[in-house]
Amino acid sequence: MLVITAIVLMVVGVIYFLFIKNIQNKTTISNNKATVTKINNDNKPSVTINEPLFTFELPGQWKETARDSDPRYHSIQWNYVSKNASGRWVRLYIDTIPASFAVNYLQPVTAFDNGLNIGQLSDNCVTFTQGATPNTSRDISVPNSQAALPARWQKVSFMCDNSHVSHQVVGTGSTEGNNVVTVTGSQNGPHKYFFVYEDDAYHPDYSIFTDALESFKAK
User: Fold this and answer.
1) Mind listing the pLDDT tens digit for each residue in 135-174?
2) Residue 209 CB neighbour total at 10 angstroms
3) Is 9 a member of any domain?
4) N or C: which end of the chain has fewer CB within 10 A?
5) Residue 4, phi then psi, degrees to nearest 5
6) Residue 25's pLDDT band (boundaries 50, 70, 90)?
7) Which residue range is the domain that position 155 belongs to?
8) Cβ contacts of residue 195 below 8 Å, gap of 6+?
9) Contact 206, 136 (CB under 8 A)
10) Are the beta carbons of 59 and 214 closer than 8 angstroms?
C-alpha cells in the first residue's frame, strides 16, 4: 500500500507540474511599463489683454473685474470665470508699486528686451523665511509686526505673508527691489510692473501665471 500511495502521489505531482508550466507559457503580462499621459493644453482658449502700455495672454476664460487709477496705485484685475476655478485672479500694478504687498510664493523675473525671463518659482515662503512658522496647513494668528516678514529667494527680496500661510498668492519680483521689474517698450519707454496671481483651487495651476508672464510684451 505504501508503494502504491507513493506512485499515485508522484503521478499527481508530475501532472500538476506540467499543468502549471503550460499555464505560465501561455500567460502574457501586458502594461508592464508605467504609462505617462501628457495633457495637451495647446487648444485651451485664451484671452488677449491689450492695453496702451503692454499686451499679454491669459489662458482660459477671463474678464476684467477691477481697475484702479487713483494717486496711490494704478492696477487692473482679471478674474477667471469658469465655475470650476473660483478664487483665481490676476492683478497687475503699473508704475505705482506696493512694495509692502506680502505674498506666499515668489516668482522671480528679469526684463529681457520688451518681455520677461521667468525664474524658478519658490516654495511657500514660510518654509525658508527667518522667523516664520513653517506650517502651511492653516492660517495662524500673529502680531501685526510679524504678519509680513522680509524674505529672499534667488537673490530677490520680497515680503513673505506669515499670517495667511495657507493661501496661494504668487507675486513677481526682481533684483531691482520689492515687487518691481522695469520693462522697456519701443514706443512708451520704461515702466514698472508687479504681477500678483491667486489660485485657491485644491490643485492650483501656476502654469497659467507663468504662461501669462512669458507672453507679456511692453509696447
Assistant:
1) 888 887 888 888 999 999 999 999 999 999 989 999 999 9
2) 26
3) no
4) N
5) -65, -40
6) very low
7) 46-218
8) 90, 91, 92, 93, 107, 171, 172, 209, 212, 213
9) no
10) no
Q: What is the identity of the amino acid at 161?
A: D
DSSP H or E segment with residue 192: strand 189-199
| Segment 169-195, tens digit of pLDDT | 999 999 999 999 999 999 999 999 999
Domain count, the chain: 1
Residue 139 belongs to a domain: yes
* pTM of the model as a whole: 0.78
Q: Which residues of 61-98 are buried (b: 16+ CB within 10 A; e: fewer)?
A: ebeeeeeeeeeebebbebbbeeeebeebbbbbbbeebb
Closest CA to 167 of 201, 134, 195: 201
Backbone φ, ψ for residue 148 (5° rounding): -130, 125
Give the C-alpha separation, 124 to 169, whole Å. 9
Three-state DSSP class for 193? strand
**131 domain residue, yes or no:** yes
Q: Is 178 exposed, middle or buried (0-12, 13-18, 19+ CB in 10 A)?
A: buried
- Specify the residue for cell string 520677461: 116
**d(Cα 45, Cα 95) in Å, to the nearest integer?**
30
Angstrom distances, CA of residue 177 to CA of 156, 184, 219: 7, 17, 23
| N residues, the chain | 219
- Residue 1 belongs to a domain: no
C-alpha span between 197 and 103 (Å, rounded): 9
